[in-house]
UniProtKB/TrEMBL annotation:
InterPro entries per the UniProt record, alphabetical: Ald_DH/histidinol_DH, Ald_DH_C, Ald_DH_CS_CYS, Ald_DH_CS_GLU, Ald_DH_N, Aldehyde_DH_dom, Aldehyde_DH_Superfamily, Succ_semiAld_DH
Entry annotation: catalytic residues: E253
Entry GO terms, CC: cytosol
Natural source organism: Vibrio marinisediminis
GO molecular function, one term: succinate-semialdehyde dehydrogenase (NAD+) activity
Family as reported in the entry's similarity comment: Belongs to the aldehyde dehydrogenase family.
Record protein name field: NAD-dependent succinate-semialdehyde dehydrogenase
A GO biological process held by the record: gamma-aminobutyric acid catabolic process
Keyword Hydrolase: no
Keywords assigned by UniProt, alphabetized: Oxidoreductase
Any Pfam family matching the protein: Aldedh
The keyword Oxidoreductase belongs to this UniProt entry's keyword annotation: yes
The Aldehyde dehydrogenase domain, residue ranges: 24-474
Length: 482
């Protein structure tokens, strides 16, 4: 690994401002070739408790700092991320597999959250409410919620961390983080830069190892006032149940089953480009990935042909190879799920316009486009999380809205139409937290990210993401006429 700043590659956990090794280690491999990248400690309950201890102590001091001070520290962290973006992207590609250019894009996206909340730190406004008594004042203040536990996924190992940590630190909170076991090195590199930026010891703690033991401490310890999790719906439900005994605030960004709707009046070329982004970014391993592509009968064949032509041209391979657009999937289980969805669809009458699986043991999947899909196929009901674009035919607006909403998930949706009225009608009718209208890439630090139904609770990004880390306190000041 060639890094300009070798200290970014840490193989120890970061607890209370110290880099600590463990008695046991986990091996981290490169999904492109299976080679060992390095090792991280296998830690558990004791170390998780140390993290909470340190965070609780650091919070008592950090919450008293000025908004300007917190803003300046976050700004320095942002600048260091930009300065070392090549190194961060190198680490990310090695452990996650996405192409280097795409990894650089994620680092920029991750840094944008730190930049945004470095500015938002100064805007945690309270309010004055007209009083019900002439001799009193109603004042509402905002206070940091306290120690926050975050559990982040492997698909965006940098952005999902800063999207949680930056608003937490800006609000005056402390953070304990367990990164995904597949991608710990990106998290540790970010912690190193946070240390360099002047974040005080104990405020940011990163622990790797036993998910059940560490998660158990996060959900049971009363000093942890919020749990923020991005991942599967099933795990989110477990964490929610475990957190009930201490009534924690929850932020859950869970699974999706995003519809991508192409109406007969759409700009087909623009819709194809949007589908390429919404479906195949990160090899289809995104929670807002277009999972069911509904295409109007009048433009179905045209859209399918143009999409397949572009998909066939995508180069699959190692993330550091030239012109590679699709990297490996994260593990063999991810490949198996794509294969199960393809085989189920083909057995029920679907036609594959393109796509192929690599030889046994490899995690590369040449992206699929399937036509003649029906709603009884697995891919209509489950999130594939891989490079598979299934095209479902529809005939009218009411029908496609009903089918699009026929899912327990409600994270994102996309629609393409030239009709302003239809854009508003369908956008309003879709049961999701985010809608891309004539746009396939909707994520930005400036907008609230999150879903409805079983896709989770709360929002990340925007000013609303800051509010998630603040508690309101109402004070009535009476007797002001004395």
């Amino acid at each position: 690994m060639q890094l300009k700043y070798p200290a970014l590659f840490q193989q120890q956990c970061y607890i209370n401002g110290q880099w600590l090794a463990g008695s046991e280690e986990e091996v981290i491999t490169n999904p492109s070739n299976g080679e060992v990248i390095g090792h991280v400690p296998t830690m558990g309950q004791n170390e998780a408790e140390q993290c909470v201890d340190a965070a609780h102590k650091a919070f008592s001091e950090w919450k008293l700092t000025t908004a300007d001070h917190r803003a300046n520290v976050l700004r320095k962290w942002y600048e260091l991320m930009v300065e070392h973006s090549d190194d961060l992207a190198t680490i990310l590609t090695l452990e996650q597999g996405k192409p280097f250019a795409e990894a650089k894009g994620e680092i920029a996206y991750a840094a944008s959250f730190v930049q945004w909340y470095s500015e938002e730190a100064r805007r945690a406004y309270g309010e004055m409410i007209p009083s019900h008594r002439p001799n009193g004042k109603i004042v509402v203040t905002k206070e940091p919620i306290g120690v926050v536990a975050a559990i982040t996924p492997w698909n965006f190992p940098a952005a999902m961390i800063t999207r949680k940590c930056a608003p937490a630190f800006a609000a005056g909170c402390a953070m304990v983080l367990k990164p995904a076991p597949e991608t710990p090195f990106t998290a540790l590199a970010l912690a190193k830069l946070a240390e360099d930026a002047g974040l005080p010891k104990g405020l940011f703690n990163v622990v790797t190892g036993d998910a059940i033991a560490i998660g158990g401490v996060f959900t049971a310890d009363k000093r942890v006032r919020k749990v923020s999790f991005t991942g599967s719906t099933n795990v989110g439900k477990i964490l929610m149940n475990q957190s009930a005994s201490t009534i924690k605030k929850m932020a859950l960004e869970l699974g999706g089953n995003a519809p991508f709707i192409v109406f007969d009046d759409a700009d087909i070329d623009a819709a194809v480009e949007g589908a390429m982004i919404a479906k195949f970014r990160n090899a289809g391993q995104t929670c807002v990935c277009a999972n069911r592509l509904f295409v109007h009968d009048a433009v179905y064949d045209q859209f399918a042909q143009k999409l397949a032509q572009k998909v066939k041209a995508l180069k699959v391979g190692d993330g550091f190879a030239d012109n590679v657009v699709i990297g490996p999937l994260i593990n063999a289980g991810a490949v198996a799920k794509v294969q199960a969805h393809v085989e189920d669809a083909v057995a029920k009458g679907a036609e594959a316009l393109c796509g192929a699986f690599a030889k046994d043991g490899e995690l590369f999947v040449a992206p699929f486009v399937l036509t003649q899909m029906s709603d009884d196929m697995l891919v209509a009901q489950e999130e594939t999380f891989g490079p598979l674009a299934p095209l479902f035919r529809f005939y009218d607006e009411a029908e496609v809205i009903e089918r699009a909403n026929n899912t327990e998930s409600g994270l994102a949706a996309y629609l393409y139409t030239r009709s302003l009225g239809r854009a508003w009608r369908v956008g309003d009718a879709l049961e999701v937290g985010m809608v891309g209208i004539n746009e396939g890439l909707i994520s930005t630090a400036a907008a609230p990210f999150g879903g409805v139904k079983e896709s989770g609770l709360g929002r990340e990004g925007s000013r609303h993401g800051m509010e998630e880390y603040l508690e309101m306190k109402y004070m009535f000041m009476g007797g002001l006429d004395q």
